[in-house]
Write a structure and sequence with these properties.
The protein has 306 residues and is mainly alpha-helical. The protein has 15 helices and 2 strands. It has one domain. A hairpin with a 5-residue loop joins strand 1 and strand 2. This is SalK.
Length: 306
């Protein structure tokens, strides 16, 4: 693919991903999930994202998520479905999205401008979704089926639907690309952390459920391979930093991932994709300024707007 076209697809895809995932850290969302008997945070989010696949076992969930600890997932799935059914969890997720978007946008003076941006983005990417082939993409396919039953109340909820399907579609392709490149899930997570522009190390380890032994093992393995170096943060915790070789490996995986979504994005011309950069930037700035990506979790949340 043309390099500028590819970069624009990556940029818009990353912003759609951020629009989807901002709710994961919301106290409002956590309270909504608590109404269904779930612990806010990791437990509620795990149930919400996996619910479209139904009452599958832990192996299916951890395989689809890829960079979560299987033993951690198995400690929650399928036990979670004794608390709330997948069907009820899908409904809870829609309610949480509505509450989150209302909190984020309803009282803003520029809501007309933001609504226009959300509508433009959702409408313009509709041909991409229509062009998606979900074969071999179990999480994306299940999510798309579940969202087909959602009736969004606002342009922001409509965009969340679009963003969620696009995120899971590229995500399934990314998992395939990691498998092709021979990068295990924990290594992929460690390399992401090592860029310094994503999760903080302790937050990544905790939310994905890895033990200290597993985390240090991956860290040592990647350091020995020359993919990261390991220093210390200001509290004395290990702080991995990616090397040029690590960046090259990540770029190799991203190029493979680009190929998995190229057919879907072929529905839009270069100039149509480029036109999505501005409205997506407008919306992601609101998320970043709202504190949707907390500094306790992310190393540099401001990069979400770039």
């Amino acid at each position: 693919m043309d390099s500028q076209r590819t970069q624009n697809i990556r940029t818009v895809s990353a912003r759609l991903n951020s629009f989807h995932s901002a709710m994961y850290f919301s106290e409002t969302v956590g309270r909504k999930y608590a109404e269904y008997g779930l612990e806010p945070g990791v437990e509620g989010n795990l149930a919400a994202r996996s619910a479209p696949m139904g009452r599958v076992n832990a192996g299916v969930v951890s395989a689809a998520y890829y960079n979560y600890s299987h033993s951690f997932v198995a400690s929650l799935i399928p036990k979670l479905w004794e608390t709330v059914s997948p069907e009820d969890m899908i409904r809870a997720r829609f309610e949480a999205v509505s509450a989150f978007m209302s909190e984020l946008f309803d009282d803003r003076e520029d809501i007309a401008l933001l609504t226009e941006a959300a509508t433009e983005l959702a409408t313009a990417t509709a041909p991409v979704l229509a062009n998606m082939d979900f074969s071999g993409r179990p999480l994306a396919a299940a999510t798309a089926d579940a969202l087909a039953g959602h009736e969004p109340n606002t342009a922001f909820e409509q965009l969340w639907d679009v963003a969620t399907i696009a995120r899971e579609f590229r995500g399934d392709g990314h998992v395939s690309s990691l498998v092709t490149a021979g990068v295990p899930g924990i290594d992929a997570l460690m390399l992401d952390v090592a860029t310094g522009a994503s999760f903080k190390p302790r937050a990544a380890q905790k939310t994905r459920g890895y033990t200290d032994e597993e985390w240090k093992g991956a860290q040592s393995r990647l350091a020995a391979a020359g993919l990261i170096t390991v220093g210390e943060d200001d509290r004395g915790f290990d702080l991995p930093a990616i090397t040029d070789a690590g960046r090259d490996l990540r770029e190799q995986v991203e190029q493979l991932t680009d190929g998995t979504v190229a057919a879907a994005w072929s529905a839009l011309a270069d100039e149509e994709i480029e036109a999505l950069v501005s409205p997506s930037r407008t919306l992601i700035k609101v998320l970043a300024q709202s504190g949707a990506f907390p500094a306790s979790v992310f190393a540099q949340p401001a990069k979400k707007t770039s």
